[in-house]
Amino acid sequence: MSTRGIEGRPGFPGSPRALGGGGGHVGAPHIQPIIAFGQQPCGFFPRRFLVAKIRTARRLQAQIGGRVVYFCHDSDHDPRETRTILRHRATGQPAYLNFAVVSKLQRKFSPLYAKRIAADWHARTLGQLTNYVDHPVIDLFRTTSAETVGGFCLEMYRGMGLLDGVDVVTSSDPEVRRRACDVDDFFVDVPYEGEIVRARARDGGLYLHEGGDSFVALPGAASGFGKEQISPTRDTRLRWMQSVIHCTHYVTGAGEQAYLRPEDAPEIAYVRREDIERSDEAFTELS
């Protein structure tokens, strides 16, 4: 793994190095640093870019103190987020594994915190793991259980030791949603055909994105729902998150750097995550 020194993104405000050893905002050294990173659950073994964010946050914490917060965006519904890429131990060829859930509607449209894992998925996946990972990791997988995709991912990350000393804030938490600021671009979790789905609010209606330019319009207007049903879009997520966790530093991934708008939260010092090889593949080491 190659690493890059911790520094603010060029063009982003507040290089942490410029803040000095006290941490916090310039001119307010008494404020305890809150170092945050955000990520959807990203596989039953986490993708390596998430581990790079965690390591970057911990290195910064060692320099300036404070606490580390993982903003876990388990409200996302895209099943591709949890695809887990493992390398065959003998051939080195990649294998693309993912969760199986109880229905096609859930797989496509339910948020990760509500996608219920199919009854036979755990045993079937466990039987494949000897081809890809060492026995201690297999033993952890064997003893990990959760009803939902988002819950299983978090339990695995905790079991691997990745979240030791890290505060976890989930975007599905009703209290977090109630405390968050209002945003004008958002999704709403609503019942549909016996499931909870994540629908985009747009032009007074609610829609499920089928892919491309195809959408399914849900019956009823985009009104009458509570804040505990609302989660942000990609473009409003930073401001929504910051209104709850009030971080002083935020570790950005390569993808985030392309769309984050620092003007939405100019009080944050933005920090590039360290580089890591094969960033999209699964991390399978125990801490």
CATH overall fold name of one domain: Rossmann fold
Poorly predicted regions: 1-28
Number of helices: 9
The overall pLDDT, averaged over residues, is: 90
**What global shape is seen?**
globular
Main sheet properties: 5 strands, parallel
- The CATH class name of one domain reads Alpha Beta
Q: SS-based structural class?
A: alpha/beta
What is the tally of beta strands? 12
Order of helices and strands: HEHEEEHHHHEHEEEEEHEHE
The gist of it:
With 287 residues, this protein is of the alpha/beta class.
Could you characterize the architecture of this molecule?
The strands form 3 sheets. A 5-stranded parallel beta sheet has the order 5-2-1-11-12, covered by helices on one side. A 5-stranded antiparallel beta sheet has the order 9-8-7-6-10. Strands 3-4 form a two-stranded antiparallel sheet. β6 and β7 form a beta hairpin. The longest helix has 17 residues. It has a domain of 178 residues: 3-Layer(aba) Sandwich (Rossmann fold). The protein is built from 9 helices and 12 strands. The protein is α/β, with parallel strands linked by helices.
